[in-house]
Amino acid sequence: MRFFSIMKQKQLFYITDNAWDKIMQILEKSTKSKGFFFYADSGGCNGFNYKLTLLDQNKLDTLQNPNFIQKAENKVYIDPLYEMYLLGTTIDYVKEDYEKGIFENKFIFTADKNLYMSCGCGISFSPKN
Q1: What is the H or E stretch that residue 39 is in?
Q2: What are 77-125's pLDDT values in tens digits?
Q3: What is the CA radius of gyration of the chain?
Q4: Are 67 and 57 in contact (CB under 8 A)?
Q5: Which residues lie closer than 8 Å to 128 by C-beta, 6 or more apart?
Q6: Residue closest to 90 by CA, chosen among 1, 32, 16
Q7: What distance in Å separates the CA atoms of residue 80 and residue 59, rounded to the nearest whole number?
Q8: How far, in Å, CA of 40 to CA of 54, rounded?
Q9: What pLDDT does residue 126 have?
Q10: How far apart are CA 92 and CA 75, in angstroms?
Q11: What is the distance between the alpha carbons of residues 72 and 24, in angstroms, rounded to a whole number?
């Protein structure tokens, strides 16, 4: 496995402190999970959808040399098959705030605008030509 330092000057992926806090909370409660799995899946209004799911040992064993981002004991693994489509992505977590028009707690994904086009929902994206 290769490790992406979250302290690199030019990061390949970025996870905000809010997202790390939520990831750590979830992993503390999920004893069977080995981390999170970040990947892309075809679909959506713009070509690909971002996906962030819990990763168990069986799924981890099927991955071939996955990269990961780590904070303390917590890891987010990046799917090697879609890694090039996820470069420059920021993962954040927002909490509901009715005054700001946020009506749910959720992870949000922001694509590097130099590399990708994203739709308004923030879940779907496509590479720029």
Answers
A1: strand 33-42
A2: 998 888 887 888 899 999 888 888 878 899 988 877 666 666 665 566 6
A3: 15
A4: no
A5: 114, 115, 116, 117
A6: 16
A7: 13
A8: 14
A9: 63
A10: 15
A11: 9
Provide the domain count of the chain.
1
Residue 17's domain spans which residues?
A: 2-127
What CATH number corresponds to the domain at position 31? 2.60.300.12
Burial of 11 per CB tally in 10 Å (0-12, 13-18, 19+): middle
Rounded Cα–Cα distance for residues 33 and 30 (Å): 6
Beta bridge partners of 71: 74
Transcribe 41-72 into DSSP letters.
EE-STTSEEEEEEEEEHHHHHHSSS-EEEEET
Q: What are 109-112's contacts with CB under 8 Å, separation 24+?
A: 109/50, 109/52, 112/87, 112/88
